[in-house]
Automatic annotation (TrEMBL):
This is DMSO/TMAO reductase YedYZ molybdopterin-dependent catalytic subunit. It comes from Evansella vedderi. The lineage of its organism: Bacteria, Bacillati, Bacillota, Bacilli, Bacillales. Its cofactor is Mo-molybdopterin. Residues 235-350 form the Moybdenum cofactor oxidoreductase dimerisation domain. It comes from the Bacteria. The keyword Metal-binding applies. The keyword Oxidoreductase applies. CDD domains: SO_family_Moco_dimer (cd02110). SUPFAM superfamilies: E set domains (SSF81296), Oxidoreductase molybdopterin-binding domain (SSF56524).
Amino acid sequence: MYNRSVRPFLTTRSLAPENQESPIHFLTKPIISYEYFYLRNHFNYPTLKEENFFFSIGGEVTQPQTFHLYDLLQMPKRKVLMLLECAGNKRSKFEPKVYGEQWEEGAISQGVWEGVSLKDLFQYTGLKAQAKEIVFEGYDFGEDKSKGKYLSYKRSLPLSKALHEDTIIAYKYNDQPISLKHGAPFRLIVPHWYGMASVKWVKSMDVVSYSFQGPYQTEDYVYYPYEDSDIDAYPVTTINVNSIIKAPLNFSILKKGEHTIKGIAWTGMGNVRKVELSLDHGQTWMEAKIEQEIKSHYSWVSWTFLWEFHKPGEYTLLCRAIDSHNRAQPMEAFWNRKGYGYNRISEIKVKIEG
């Protein structure tokens, strides 16, 4: 535990809109409180009014309806312990550099979300046979200067993902009402997908029979493999297998002797099967001890490795996670011009003094 008289703080990436990184290297518990949960916004925060406590469901449904927060509180609730990771997490590490918020490693946090499964919610409205996707719109809106127009935040999910039992409309986080900055009163929570899918301040759900083409669906949150071409582009969805070395910090100076290397690892497919470390640039790997502190399909795992440094000098420490689908962190990141999904093998450098 850190000394509470010395507290970590979020790291500011921008103020308008507000984007802040979690102090992930200094957090020791698997459940992250609001004060340390990262913030990712496209616009300024909406002002909460009475109408914000309603959302509508329409389109290709048999019975359009409007729901109030009180309605959801009367329905069967579902709790999901889940991490959220911004698709741009670690963007600052790409080479060549890419434009966008220069996130380091702190655009990730996790906790317990509580709400109602969309699968249960749509039992009240029904779905027509031609239903294909559900378009979610948030109350947040404003000028997107990169696009030169005023927009609201809209994204869609295919029915197969939207109707997963753990895709929920959440109204609580860690047993408390969701805060305004994190999407109150309603936030979509989508397991195993990057955070852009978990729309905040949900205003409406429109069931459509076509593939939604909104700008935050088909322009942003798309992998573009080439600098000057859209060839082979495809959408950002599932979280890549990834890890962070939390301690020691990069470029630390340490004394000769035993040191416990600590970190976290996560994946958007299955679960983390193995975490390995290397001190010889990946020629050989040694397995770390995984500590599953909490039982969840959607959380990170903590890991530790006891290393004894006998000889003074400078060392490069590599870490890679491997999931149950045999996806492993690569030696080189998949470069894409908007800087999404960075998951190159984690690396720190340390100096050992005698």
